[in-house]
Specification:
A alpha/beta (276); B alpha/beta (149); C alpha+beta (337); A: 276 residues; alpha/beta; five-stranded mixed sheet; 5 strands; B: 149 residues; Rossmann fold; 44% helix
Chain lengths: 276, 149, 337
């Protein structure tokens, strides 16, 4: 039995037993290699579920909309390790009750989807711990290093060009499981901290603010980077923030549901070499 | 001849320590560079990174953020939280090409009037040698003229 | 015999146009993005693209533009209008869907009030379109009563030659004729055959769709909720659309002075219809998606007798969750009657 059939069966069982009211998974997309989020509410619909190496989107953001979990019933969701970490963060930030989230975990390796055993976010703790000890993506680090080698002036010019492409469609924000604010700071106009217009300065401010708000919360699922219709390498700026959180505060986002948000806690001996 | 460059520096300070330190510098009749505009806030914990961006947006060439030494916070923990935010924000600004030298952080207590005066003079000279933050100010200039198309 | 332009003469062509005071914009790749940029040489152009990622709409209705500069004084307010310059521009290598997009939006911007910002930019711009000989999975012009060789919105139509050496050239408007008069010696007479247009399968029955949308009962249909469940509410579909034209007016500045700007806005955003009271008449994503479809294929059609869609397919191509107009209209078209 392949993984897809196995997971369809599990989803069907969860639904027919009443253990969950909804399964959030992947279905066929508009082309052969595209997958789209699907919402399955009864066992006989589970044949629509697809699970293969093209299932890359982090679906945890669909858990957040207001009212979904307020009836106390559970929801099952297909998640890769990055998505499981997102659920931990959402739980730590009191956005979801982790007891209501049933995880259908899988990972993609060598062009294939493989099952990850476990049901609750806590079941995956050893996996996440091993990811932390492996460290952040070396590929991203190499890309980021290219920028770090530049002079500040050149780096500013690089981002100037990148951000000048931004159209403030907010796909990065909307696709991100961490961007659940009811009212985003860019939508606040009294006081108006960020220029709402999509000129380069406004774009600069927006992208800096979003990266800052994601510091120590981004799980590098790559959703924003893929969603960006104008191809801004958002992965790099978010990676840089993850690296800072890890290096300075030993914080690996989404380790557990008990993890304190990195900027809502402190240690008395936090590094401060830059303070005069 | 254009006028010699005088840097604009905005200092966001907490009222209990650094502002009191600045006051002490004043009452002690210490002289320091007049390039700094002080914005007083209740605590460094209240100094949002948005303030720094806003200062740059409004044409600052440099920004100073200063508060109580660790352990001295009037609200016990505000400066510890602020320190974490600064660490992250500083890395972010640097990664986007906003030079670290333009954004300074310091601890100055109410007793450190001399340190305040010295720091302001030092920062002013450093920013003066860097010159105006033209790259960022250019972004504002574009807004004030036509759209880019 | 028709007039043709050879690829090898394109640089001469650009030089002649520049000498006549035009700037030339063509699809090209800059900073990892394909869009219309000003080009100096034929080699800068990316004419093989099915479509650039960004539309030419950007150059007529920019994402943000200043309208008025204001200064508040004690007893009065000084204002200064900021009107865009009239530029002589050639858009070279536009695809028929993007060109049609301009023609679709013209009546909107010229309806009860003539939008100076749109028409000053339209005025001296010449649209040189290249008919499509290839399409991708997302193209759907034929489904909205257009075609890969549609001339709508174009001033000059170029049809690729079968032998791949250049294009057949056809002026469609006075503006197009005037443009060709600047390059008489560069064009030549030839009987070379044109390549056949791309084959773009029809994906839905537009008449069935518009009839269903026009039925008042459809407004409250469960269909909207089901089809838009995964919509995340970003604006990449609207902002990449060659016909979406909604905007917001924002004042940017401080207490004493600032600039009033016209910025793109999108019906996908929750803030789009949010009232000051906190009430939002379109308070769910499904009502917003319904608005987008209804606007394009019902309301706009009712007002201007044309669909507000030129079938470029960008909405689907770029959607982070693989939604788009095609899927929705296909589903409507397949609804049991």
């Amino acid at each position: 039995m392949g993984i897809q059939e196995q997971y369809r069966n599990e989803a069907a069982e969860l639904l027919s037993s009443g253990a969950v009211k909804l399964v959030i998974g992947y279905g066929e997309g508009s082309t052969s290699d595209r997958r789209r989020p699907v919402f399955i509410r009864s066992a006989d619909e589970t044949a629509r579920l697809v699970l293969d190496a093209n299932c890359i989107a982090n679906l945890s953001g669909y858990l957040v909309p207001e009212g979904l979990l307020s009836d106390g019933k559970s929801v099952a969701v297909f998640l890769k390790p990055d998505g499981i970490r997102s659920v931990n963060i959402l739980a730590a930030e009191a956005q979801v009750n982790p007891d209501q989230v049933v995880i259908l975990g899988f990972d993609i390796d060598g062009g294939q989807a493989s099952p990850l055993p476990g049901r609750k976010a806590t079941d995956f703790a050893p996996l996440i711990e091993s990811q932390k000890s492996t460290g952040l993506s070396t590929e991203l680090q190499q890309e980021a290093d290219q920028l770090e080698l530049m002079s500040a002036t050149d780096r500013f010019e690089y981002w100037n060009q990148q951000f000048s492409k931004c159209i403030k469609c907010y796909a990065c924000r909307q696709v991100c499981p961490m961007c659940y604010c009811r009212r985003c700071i860019v939508d606040v106009n009294q006081p108006q901290w960020v220029n709402t217009s999509s000129h380069t300065l406004g774009n600069f401010e927006w992208n800096i603010v979003r990266a800052f708000h994601l510091a120590g919360r981004c799980v590098a699922c790559g959703g924003c980077d893929r969603a960006c219709p104008v191809n801004i390498p958002l992965r790099l700026i978010n990676h840089r923030m993850s690296k800072e959180a890890l290096d300075a505060f030993d914080h690996f986002a989404g380790e557990s549901a008990d993890q304190k948000p990195v900027l809502a806690t402190f240690r008395q001996d936090d590094p401060e070499t830059f303070i005069l | 001849m254009s006028e010699p460059f005088e840097p604009k520096i905005v200092a966001f300070v907490c009222t209990y320590c650094t502002y009191a330190g600045a006051d002490l510098a004043g009452t002690s009749r210490m002289k320091y560079a007049s390039n700094v505009r002080i914005v007083r806030l209740p605590c460094t914990g209240r100094i949002s990174p948005m303030f720094i961006l806003k200062a740059l947006q409004k044409g600052a060439d440099g920004v100073l953020v200063s508060g109580c030494h660790p352990g001295d916070c009037h609200f016990a923990q505000g400066n510890y939280h602020a320190r974490r935010r600064w660490t992250v924000f500083r890395a972010l600004l640097s990664f986007t090409g906003i030079p670290e030298e333009r954004i300074k952080f310091s601890w100055i207590s109410a007793a450190e009037g001399a340190k305040f005066a010295e720091l302001i003079n030092g920062v002013t000279e450093e920013i003066r040698s860097l010159g105006p933050f033209e790259q960022y100010q250019e972004l504002q200039k574009i807004i004030e003229t036509q759209s880019t198309y | 015999m028709t007039r043709i332009l050879l690829h090898t003469r394109l640089d001469d062509c650009l030089a002649a146009w520049r000498a006549s005071g035009y700037s030339v914009l063509a699809p090209s790749k800059s900073h990892e993005l394909t869009r219309f940029n000003e080009v100096q040489h034929a080699s800068d152009m990316a004419l093989d693209l099915v479509l650039p990622e960004r539309t030419i709409k950007d150059h007529f209705f920019p994402q943000t533009e200043p309208l008025i500069r204001y200064r508040i004084k004690k007893h009065e307010i000084d204002t200064e209008e900021m009107v865009p310059p009239e530029l002589k521009r050639i858009f070279f290598g536009v695809r028929p869907c993007d060109a049609s997009g301009l023609a679709i939006d013209d009546p909107l911007f010229g309806w009860d009030y003539k939008d100076e910002y749109w028409f000053r930019r339209r005025g001296n711009s010449v649209i040189v379109t290249i008919a499509c000989t290839s399409a991708d999975d997302f193209c759907m012009c034929t489904s909205v009563q257009l075609s890969p060789d549609s001339t709508k919105g174009s001033d000059v139509m170029l049809t690729p030659l079968k032998d791949g050496r250049g294009w057949q050239v056809l002026a469609l408007t006075d503006r197009g004729n005037a443009l060709l008069e600047t390059i008489p010696s560069i064009l030549q007479e030839s009987d070379a055959e044109p390549a056949p247009p791309a084959s773009v399968p029809v994906k839905f029955d537009i008449d069935k769709v518009t009839a269903w949308l026009a039925d008042p009962a459809s407004f409250e249909s469960h269909f909207w909720k089901e089809i838009s469940q995964r919509c995340i509410g970003c604006a990449s579909c609207t902002f990449l659309c060659p016909t979406c034209h909604c905007f917001d007016i924002q004042d940017e500045g401080d207490t004493y002075s600032g600039i009033r700007r016209k910025n793109w806005d999108s019906c996908s955003f929750a803030m789009f219809t949010m009232h000051t009271s906190g009430h939002n008449p379109r308070n769910t994503q499904s009502t917003r998606w319904r608005q987008r479809i209804m606007h394009k294929f019902n309301y706009y059609r009712g007002k201007f007798d044309v669909n507000s869609c030129s079938g470029c397919g960008r909405c689907t191509r770029q959607c982070p969750v693989d939604m788009g107009i095609t899927e929705t209209l296909q589903s409507i078209s397949n609804l049991p009657r």
